[in-house]
Amino acid sequence: MKRFFLVFLLVPVFLVGNVFDLFEENLKNSSGYWSSVEKFKEAQLNYKRYTNFWNPEISVSLGKTGITITEVSLGKTGITITEDGISDFSISPIVNFVNIYGFELGLSFPISVNTDDWSFNFEGTQLSVSRNLKTEYTVDKLKTEANYLSSKYSLKSTKNSIFIQTVQDIFDWYYYTKKIEILSQRLQVLNEKLSKAKDDDEKKALEKQILSTEQTLRSAEYSLQTIQTKNIDEEVYQKTRKFLEGVTLPATTLEYREDLKALELQKKAEEIEKKTWFLPYLPELTFSFNYDFEDSEWLIGIGFQMTLWDFGERKLEAEKRKSQLVSLEYQEKVRNIENSLSQELVNIANLESQLRQKEIELEDLEESSKTNDQLFRKGFLSEEDYTLSKLDYVEGTLEKENLENSLILEKLKYISILGYDLEKFLKEGDQN
Questions:
Q1: How far apart are CA 45 and CA 242, in angstroms?
Q2: How many helices (H) and strands (E) does the chain have?
Q3: What is the count of structural domains for the chain?
Q4: Dist CA 306 CA 400 (whole Å)
Q5: Chain centroid to CA 302
Q6: What is the 8-class DSSP label of residue 83?
Q7: Looking at residue 57, what is its pLDDT?
Q8: Three-state secondary structure call for residue 46
Q9: Is residue 123 part of a domain?
Q10: Cα–Cα–Cα angle for 280, 284, 287, rounded to 5 degrees
Q11: Is residue 209 exposed (0-12), middle (13-18) or buried (19+ Cβ within 10 Å)?
């Protein structure tokens, strides 16, 4: 039987592939990432309404306001159709360009339509200022900013998870590929040893080893098949490992946790709502002031709507405004983050201890390998047992490297929990 030459795990190769290429590819194929992107864009757009002084928005009002004969209504907007046909109506393009502290400032350009001859009459330009008295501008702004920060952190957290999974896939691909090679060679040696065995007890022991090795091999092959990331090879692995093996833990700070900042803003909004818990019981009042440039006159409008009876919605809303739910959520969030960080530090410490144990085991395996070299050369050790001893050492080296990779992953998880953007952190370093 030819001697097995086991040189893998010992020769590093560095070529063009890298973890960020695979990461970008995984981002493109992640529905969770694109969902987070859409939510972030929507939250960002809503937040701009409060950060930008200039908020142009164009709308069109179509209808007729007044008292009709066929249906008595005051202040009704719409197109009225009677037995005589469509009554006169108006079109009013409205441009709202400023929204500050709940006041909407804009221009309207009312155009009346005569349905007898379908003629149009431009009635001049009007300056419009309106506000709903129940609008809580500060509360709405705080909640909108909180939603923006929360979606920003959610997007970053999703990216971090995909990055860590990409690294995990690269490390797992290498581990299981090499594991399968070792197990396949071990299985071949054990089968050859079994074919030469004559003692029944030795045969039974070898059969048990073969069955155990086959089970482990099947599990490794299955694990390798489940890895979703494509285009992984040893070159990518070696470059990724070299890039990440020097990663160190940054300063422990939660300043990058936008989700905590979002809860802090929600707490402020909650305090304001608690003081105005009665607001749901008040009527909807809208005041508008229009200045007609053509006639040089002010027009004042008042909108009133009062709910007299409901199914308890107002009471429920009032009770909700009195609660301190966000404060409790904030405390729980901080507690969970601290527990997660502590757990990661324990995991890191345990892996470092396991690494030290594995190093001691490898030292023993190395000494045993040197002894087996001498025994094999002198003919006191069969070729199968000699090869198995070499496989033990190579497998031990692989397990040690896998522990080192696990340590890298735990460090990345710790950095992610702190709220850092992993891609930015690894490329630019800790900016604290």
A1: 41
A2: 10, 10
A3: 1
A4: 73
A5: 46
A6: T
A7: 61
A8: helix
A9: yes
A10: 140
A11: middle
Residue 94 placed within a domain: yes
What tokens were used for 175?
């581990």
The Cα 321–Cα 332 span in angstroms is: 20
Within a domain: 125? yes
User: Residue 126 corresponds to which tokens in the numbers above?
Assistant: 């009007």
Residues recorded for the chain: 432
Output the pTM of the full model.
Answer: 0.79
Task: Give the Cα separation of 390 and 175 in Å (integer).
Answer: 18
What is the three-state SS of 318-371? HHHHHCCHHHHHHHHHHHHHHHHHHHHHHHHHHHHHHHHHHHHHHHHHHHHHHH
CA distance 50 to 151: 17
Distance between CA 25 and CA 228 in Å, rounded? 11
Q: Which of 168, 101, 201, 170 is nearest to 141 (CA)?
A: 101
Going from the C-alpha of 280 to that of each of 113, 135, 316, 370, the distances in angstroms are 39, 11, 9, 84
- Supply the DSSP symbol for 63: E
User: Which residues, 6+ apart, have CB-to-CB distance to 72 below 8 Å?
Assistant: none
| pLDDT mean across residues, the chain | 83
Residue 11 domain flag: no
Predicted confidence (pLDDT) at residue 301 exceeds the cutoff of 80: no
State whether residue 179 is helix, strand or coil.
helix
- Residue 77 in this model has a pLDDT that exceeds 70: no
- CB 389, CB 369: distance < 8 Å: yes
Q: Which domain holds residue 102?
A: 53-132
